[in-house]
């Protein structure tokens, strides 16, 4: 194969690869939104078939020859093509080490386990989900060992979500967070009476909340021509290129802030996808750089912008007017404090900015111990409840509000959770860098979110996967420094609670 032939082959490979991913993603989206419950089994069979096609495409001798030809001649390639070849080769190498039957069986297991988890959560019945969960951990362990036999399987999984991440780096990150945040959380708890958020638990009609979501999407600059908002049990974002991004939320009548911050969080993911470079679309370079980079955008919009005093000042007049008289007894300052009330709680996705990372730490510790053979799936509810008591001081009433709350393990996303905490910490450094160029708080207060989005687009979004996440972060902020995040939280909560 000549280089010219290999470049032609690359085009047809990308078309086929995109089409398979598109179909798979749409089926997932359909399953999570409108498909009838009884359709899960048929969908699982189709998804398994798609995953077989994807495996065969990735590992076919023709693909390998194409990649090897281009790799050998990489000096002659433009930077975008050279990067595509680098990442596609990495994908091929990873996939090729997994036996085909195992790969397809895993796709089937994911579909089944997701369906069983939904029912188990509804019924709060862990025993029903336990065998699938154990199988999910066992399969992930086997796959990790196929990929890198000489490496600890949990490190391989962490690296799959965030290149270069290891148990050692997670341990040091989480230890420094825990040492600084636990005393701060304790102080906030002692002063809990200073913030009363009862008005946020009044009944806010869902129809109006839907209109509010549309308003908020406009406010943060989401192009609705390429992004729509749906409703699901668990909010998520999925995309099929920058031209078709889907976000979802869930409305609770008596928790108006819940959907608000889901829309902003998923909106942050959407903005990243909507602004990746045109030249990167329909290829392996089209999405975000990694899960932590992605979560760093969503958590930045949700918290550092969305829970700031300036942003609360922007949305409060709309809420007060449209939901009148529900918030007539609340003023701007109280609204800001209510939005930032911190209470140790049961549910990660509803957690406040301060206690959030403790929820992530618990999941990380449990995953690590499972992979070290200290725990089995059956031990999880007990350990989960014990750690929630130890870390957050709360009693878990049932598994629905405990170990069954997240979909990640059911969907095979093991090693993903640390991305949330690392992404949250990245955000504080983005803010610090922005402030060297403009007044961040003033921009938010004036509703000039575009000033911030433009900065992120230039520095991060448009690059897609052109750089590995660690290099991309370093190019924007220099060295990763969790102390910056601790400082941000300390300043913010000391002010909110007058500590
Ligand atoms: Zn997210």
Q: Largest sheet, order of strands side by side?
A: 1-3-2
- Separation of termini? 69 Å
Q: What is the count of structural domains?
A: 2
Q: What form results from the Cα inertia axes?
A: globular
CATH architecture of the largest domain: Orthogonal Bundle
- CATH top-level class of the largest domain: Mainly Alpha
List the total number of helices.
20
Structural class: mainly alpha
Ligand roster: zinc ion
* Main pleated-sheet profile: 3 strands, mixed
Computed CA radius of gyration, to the nearest angstrom: 23 Å
**Average of the residue pLDDT scores:** 96
Write down the secondary-structure element order: HHHHHHHHHEEEHHHHHHHHHHH
Strand portion, in percent?
A: under 5%
What name is given to the CATH topology of the largest domain?
A: Neurolysin, domain 3
Ranges where pLDDT stays below 50 over 5 or more residues in a row are: none
Number of strands: 3
Residue share in helix? 55-70%
């Amino acid at each position: 194969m000549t280089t010219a032939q290999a470049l032609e082959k690359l085009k047809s490979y990308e078309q086929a690869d995109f089409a398979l991913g598109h179909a798979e993603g749409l089926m997932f989206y359909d399953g999570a939104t409108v498909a009838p419950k009884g359709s899960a089994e048929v969908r699982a069979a189709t998804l398994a078939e798609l995953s077989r096609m994807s495996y065969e495409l990735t590992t076919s001798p023709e693909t390998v020859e194409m990649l090897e030809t281009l790799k050998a001649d990489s000096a002659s390639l433009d930077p975008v093509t050279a990067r595509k070849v680098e990442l596609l080769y990495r994908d091929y190498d990873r996939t090729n080490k997994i036996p085909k039957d195992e790969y397809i069986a895993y796709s089937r297991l994911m579909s089944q386990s997701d369906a069983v988890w939904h029912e188990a959560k509804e019924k709060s019945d862990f025993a029903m989900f336990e065998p699938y969960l154990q199988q999910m951990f066992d399969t992930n362990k086997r796959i990790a060992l196929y990929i890198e036999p000489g490496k600890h399987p949990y490190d391989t999984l962490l690296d799959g979500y965030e290149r270069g991440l290891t148990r050692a780096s997670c341990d040091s990150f989480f230890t420094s967070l825990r040492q600084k945040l636990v005393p701060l959380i304790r102080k906030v708890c002692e002063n809990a009476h200073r913030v009363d958020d009862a008005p946020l638990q009044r009944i806010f009609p869902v129809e109006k909340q839907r209109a509010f979501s549309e308003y908020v999407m406009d406010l943060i600059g989401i192009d609705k021509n390429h992004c729509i908002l749906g409703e699901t049990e668990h909010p998520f974002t999925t995309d099929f290129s920058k031209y078709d991004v889907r976000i979802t939320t869930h409305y609770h009548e008596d928790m108006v802030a819940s959907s608000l911050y889901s829309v902003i969080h998923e909106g942050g993911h959407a903005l990243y996808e909507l602004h990746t470079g045109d030249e990167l679309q329909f290829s392996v370079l089209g999405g975000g750089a990694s899960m932590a980079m992605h979560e760093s955008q969503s958590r930045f919009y949700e918290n550092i912008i969305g829970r700031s005093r300036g942003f609360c000042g922007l949305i409060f007049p709309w809420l007060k007017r449209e939901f009148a008289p529900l918030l007539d007894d609340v003023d701007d300052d109280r609204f800001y404090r209510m939005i930032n009330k911190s209470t140790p709680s049961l549910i990660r996705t509803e957690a406040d900015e301060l206690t959030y990372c403790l929820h992530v730490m618990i999941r990380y510790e449990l995953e690590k111990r499972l992979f070290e053979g200290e725990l089995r799936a059956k031990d999880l509810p007990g350990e989960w409840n014990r750690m929630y008591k130890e870390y957050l001081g709360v009693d878990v009433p049932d598994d629905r509000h405990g170990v069954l709350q997240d979909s990640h393990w059911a969907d095979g996303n093991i090693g993903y959770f640390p991305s949330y905490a690392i992404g949250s910490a990245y955000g504080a450094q983005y803010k610090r860098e922005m402030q060297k160029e403009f007044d961040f708080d003033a921009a938010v207060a004036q509703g000039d979110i575009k000033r911030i989005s433009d900065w992120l687009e230039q520095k991060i979004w448009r690059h897609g996967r052109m750089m590995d996440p660690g290099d991309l972060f370093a190019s924007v902020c220099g060295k990763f420094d969790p102390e910056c995040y601790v400082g941000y939280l300390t300043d913010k909560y000391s002010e909110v609670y007058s500590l």
